[in-house]
């Protein structure tokens, strides 16, 4: 490939292992892609709020039918906004938590380089596992995203997860800002080994170790 990966705009025909090339992740130094417009962040927040309410909702049949009718109207409205995966805002909006990706627990990256990623993350009510604690699967999604970020930065190439192991050390609370960190352990050829931790103040909630593989051009 002769082009600069930072300038590439992948499509179905041209992509970097199925991911959009990113020149970096320092949200203070880079002007992010603002597709979706100035209200996209509030749009995502309202959807997250809906997910939080639904997670604890026990509606009457009357309320359920009323909500279903409104949700059908909303889905009809949103049908006209659907684009292909290469055009969605929800992975390039570096000005928003989790880059605007509704499928991820919202996190804000404060620092990112090839050796270390530091972030603040909040698991919402919608991430409830039980007894006011975050579901372990959502913790896994968060680690996969953050460890994948450091692996891609370290390898200067898109990566795919080959292995991810999580040790749950204590309860991970909901609706509280937590501290997450990921860093590089070592590299062996295309294999990049990374580590991560999740803290509530001084208390270790979970830690992870992962193996990521750098991809060859065009590899998915």
Radius of gyration: 19 Å
Order of helices and strands: HHEEEEHEEEE
In percent terms, what proportion of residues is strand? 25-35%
User: What is the makeup of the main sheet?
Assistant: 6 strands, antiparallel
What strand line-up does the widest sheet have?
1-2-6-7-8-5
Total helices: the number is 3
Short description:
With 220 residues, the chain is α+β, with helices and mostly antiparallel strands.
Structural key phrases:
single chain, six-stranded antiparallel sheet, two-stranded antiparallel ribbon, 3 helices, disordered N terminus
Secondary-structure map:
Elements: H1 40-55, H2 61-79, E1 107-112, E2 116-121, E3 128-130, E4 133-134, H3 136-155, E5 159-168, E6 178-188, E7 191-200, E8 203-214
Antiparallel strand pairs: 1-2, 2-6, 3-4, 5-8, 6-7, 7-8
Structure description:
- The chain starts with 39 loop residues before the first helix and ends in a 6-residue tail after the last strand.
- The strands form 2 sheets. A 6-stranded antiparallel sheet has the order 1-2-6-7-8-5, with helices on one face.
- It is an alpha+beta fold.
- A hairpin with a 3-residue loop joins strand 1 (107-112) and strand 2 (116-121).
- 25% of the residues lie in helices and 27% in strands.
């Amino acid at each position: 490939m002769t082009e600069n990966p930072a300038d590439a705009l992948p499509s179905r025909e041209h992509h970097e292992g199925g991911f959009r090339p990113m020149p970096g992740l320092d949200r203070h130094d880079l002007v992010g892609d603002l597709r979706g417009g100035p209200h996209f962040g509030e749009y995502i927040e309202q959807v997250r709020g809906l997910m939080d309410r639904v997670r604890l909702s026990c509606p009457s049949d009357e309320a359920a039918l009323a909500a279903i009718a409104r949700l059908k109207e909303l889905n009809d409205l949103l049908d006209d906004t659907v684009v292909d995966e290469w055009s969605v805002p929800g992975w390039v909006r570096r000005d928003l938590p989790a880059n605007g990706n509704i499928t991820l627990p919202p996190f804000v990256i404060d620092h990112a380089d090839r050796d270390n990623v530091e972030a603040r993350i909040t698991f919402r009510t919608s991430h409830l596992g039980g007894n006011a604690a975050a579901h372990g699967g959502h913790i896994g999604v968060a680690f996969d995203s953050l460890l994948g970020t450091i692996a891609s930065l370290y390898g200067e190439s898109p990566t795919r997860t080959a292995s991810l192991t999580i040790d749950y050390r204590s309860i991970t609370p909901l609706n509280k800002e937590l501290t997450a960190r990921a860093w590089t352990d070592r590299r062996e050829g295309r294999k990049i080994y990374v580590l991560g931790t999740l803290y509530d103040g001084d208390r270790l909630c979970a830690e992870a170790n992962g193996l990521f593989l750098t991809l060859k051009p065009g590899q998915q």
